[in-house]
Amino acid sequence: MSLDLAIRLAQTLLALALLQQSLEHLCGPRDERALFGARAVLCGLVVAGLAAPWPLVGLAGLSLLILQRFQGPYNGGSDRMGLLALWCLTAATLAPSIHLKELFFGYLGAQLVLSYFISGGVKIVNPDWRSGRALGDVFRFSAYPVSEALRGWADRPRVLLAMSWAVMGFELAFPLAMLWRPGLVAALAVAATFHLANACLFGLNRFFWTWVATYPALLWLQARVF
Fold first, then answer.
1. Confidence at 144, pLDDT banded by 50, 70, 90
2. Domain tally for the chain?
3. Please, where are the H alpha helices in 24-145?
């Protein structure tokens, strides 16, 4: 995958992710409708490839107004990753040299690797995750409207223990996937499936779309470095 193709693919996927998020706000207060309506239009221009790179620059500038409106990334990790991807892609698009383009885009890929590895590191030092209790609480106390059958998984300690260690092991081992292209493709497929399951079961849909939008950066980085 060439650098230009990878950047374009990441731009399109991120614009679609931001568009989906923007539509959630079009029934909100007037100031939100203005901000996110403008973002939806800019996302459409990015997807269509019109007036490039200015719609992407506009999205980056608009992100600052949205941060001010909500006093920070109000939706936590998915918003932070979306901001990182947006600014890295904007910088890579505007960079005057190929080396700077590679630097900004490669940085996004490296941050994606760290996002999984650090997440695993945070979990494994937590005794509740090592015992499976933390995952049980996720099923038992999810704020999203989930079925009673799904909440019933909280009463299966052995299954939760195995699931907890599977998640931690995968996240901690994720950087090793960079050493082998087929291994990386498989790891990204597993990660995407994990995010999709969280979206379907717990309503964490933003994580799926935002993280998948960064995958082209990692695929390009792996080919560039190894």
1. low
2. 1
3. 30-48, 54-70, 77-94, 98-124, 127-131, 133-141
CB-side exposure of 53: number of CA atoms within 13 Å? 17
- Over the range 116-133, which residues count as b (16 or more CB within 10 Å of their CB) and which as e? bbebbeebbeeeebeebb
Cβ 220 vs Cβ 20: under 8 Å: no
At 145 the pLDDT is 58
What span, in angstroms and rounded, lies between the C-alpha atoms of 22 and 35?
9
Please state whether the peptide bond connecting residue 53 to the residue before it is cis, i.e. omega within 30 degrees of 0: yes
Amino acid found at 83:
L
**Residue 210, domain extent:** 3-225
* pLDDT (0 to 100) of residue 154: 76
Q: Which of the residue ranges 92-101, 109-118, 134-143, 212-221 would you say has the lowest mean pLDDT?
A: 134-143
